[in-house]
Each structure stands twice: as C-alpha cells, then as structure tokens.
Amino acid sequence: MPRLNDFDLMGVQMEALKTGKAVYKPIYNHDTGNKDPPELIEPNKIMVFEGLHPIYDEKARSQLDLAIYIDIVNDVKFAWKVQRDVAERGWTEEQVREDIDKRLPDFSKYVDPQKANADVVLRYEPSDKGLPFLKVKLIQKKDGKFPMITLKKDLSLSGSEPGAELKMYDDDWFGSPVTVVEMDGEIDMDNMEEQLKEIEANIEGLPSKSDKELTEAMVSLKSSPGSQNGTGLLQTVIAMKVREIYEKITGKVASMA
Fold first, then answer.
1. Residue 229 sits in the same domain as residue 141
2. CA dihedral 243, 249, 253, 255 (to 10 degrees)
3. Any idea where the Phosphoribulokinase/uridine kinase domain is (predicted)?
4. Who contacts 76 (Cβ-Cβ below 8 Å, separation ≥6)?
5. Is there a domain that residue 256 lies in?
6. What contacts 236, CB < 8 A, 6 or more positions away?
7. Does residue 183 form part of some domain?
8. Is 239 found in the same domain as 219?
9. How confident is the model at residue 256 (pLDDT cuts 50, 70, 90)?
10. Over residues 237-241, mean pLDDT
11. What is the pLDDT confidence band of residue 3, given thresholds at 50, 70 and 90?
C-alpha cells in the first residue's frame, strides 16, 4: 500500500540522482517485514525506476523524463498466472484465482490508476480471435513526452493462423486524447522477416538508424517470448523511442545494443 512507502523521500532521492548525487535507498525486506540497511545508488546516464508505485506520487512522477505503464487486463493476467503457477508451483486454477482476487482491491485502488498519468501505455487484451492470442496496444498521449508513431495504413498479414492485424485510431484515455496503434494476433514466423519489413515500412515517426533496424532487432530475438505478437514489436518500438528521448536530452548518439 502507498502508506508503507516514503514518497517524500523517493521524490527527493530521484531529484538528487538527476542532479548527479548519490543516495542511500531504503531496502524493505519482504520476508521479515523490516527494513534492511540502505543501498548506495550512484547516478548514471540512464536511471530506470520500476515497481508498483513509480508514478503514484506527483513529486516522484515529476522527476521522470518518460513514464511507461504496462497494463494487463484481468483475463490475460489470469491466463498468464495459471500458465506459470500451475506448472511451476503446483497450484490449482482456483488457487490462482483466489490469489488474484485477494490482491485486486489494493491493485484497483493504488496501482491501476497510475496508468492515467503515464506518457505511454502498453496494454494487453485478449485477441479478437480469443486467448491465448493477444491484442497489444500502444496508447500514446497526444502532445505528450512520448514521441508518437503512426501507421500509414492499416495492415492485414496472412500466413499461419491466426495472422496479424495492425491498425491505428484516436481515442480518449482518462480524459486525455490519445492515438492508439494496436496489433492483434501473430505474424507468420516462417515469413517473419518479410512481414516485419512490411510493418516497418508502414510506421511513421520511427527513429531508426537504418531502414531495417526494427526488423533486424526483432529477427535477432526471434526465439524470445512474444516475438511473434505485439509484445516484441511494440516493446522494441518503445526501446527505440527511449533512445530517441535520451539523445534529445543529452545530445549524444546511443545504440540499441
């Protein structure tokens, strides 16, 4: 819960790190319920703050150059947790459901609302073709900190089932106008490079170092989970945009390596 977090200290320490000062970050021990000795954090060129409440507090949120929220709807969350916990922990589906339901009130009250303040949201929904296939959305605030990508046209990619559909549309996100780019289904992995080239050529606003950078990055991670659906594609787009923001802030050229 937020009351267990020292957000005043968090905001101050994030501000200090941005100005090049080291801080001693508190460490909460989940096993004992007590605090361990603090950890020395040195400032770096890129700092990533992740967890349950990175953009909950206004002071802490104001220190971020970019706020990203991963939004997984309950049906997808349940399917993923069943897949993991039944296989790895020996749980039943009912135990998985009880565990999710137990955490849901706090999640709904304290975690989920943060997506309203994110600059960009990566949202996972069940595919129109049904689970386990996914519909993955890149929700971009208009005139926000995330440099927007758009599609020249909607795409329909055939091949192995279920195929992939890419489209773009404007929407409202908690009172803010957004542009959504979504991918539903999966590309044909036997024709992965060809289909990715078609997708890449259809994206405007992609800060590529070459006309094949997105395709080459995806192909190099072909065996990684999610490379066949919008997970890999849109996470790679976000990574390229993070690099773009870094270069804009620092005036330095960065690589994807």
1. yes
2. -20
3. 2-124
4. 124, 125, 126, 131, 134
5. no
6. 214, 217, 218
7. yes
8. yes
9. low
10. 97
11. low
Tell me, yes or no, whether 215 and 240 share the same domain: yes
Q: What is the pLDDT of residue 255?
A: 66
Residue 47 lies in a domain: yes
Tell me, yes or no, whether 50 and 168 share the same domain. Answer: no
> What global pTM score does this model have?
0.90
Which strand (E) or helix (H) includes residue 150? strand 150-151
Q: How many CB atoms lie within 10 A of CB 73?
A: 12
Q: How do strand 203-204 and strand 23-28 relate by DSSP bridges?
A: unpaired
Structural domain count of the chain: 2
Q: Provide CB contacts within 8 A for 181, sequence distance 6+.
A: 137, 138, 140, 149, 150, 151, 166, 167, 168, 234
Report the C-alpha gap between 59 and 7 in whole angstroms: 8
How does pLDDT run across 31-64, given as a tens digit for each residue?
A: 887 889 999 999 998 889 998 888 988 988 999 9
Distance between CA atoms of 82 and 105, rounded to whole angstroms? 20
Lateral strand order in the sheet of 134-141 = 68-72, 120-126, 134-141, 176-185, 164-173, 155-157
Handedness of CA 105, 5, 22, 29 (dihedral sign): negative
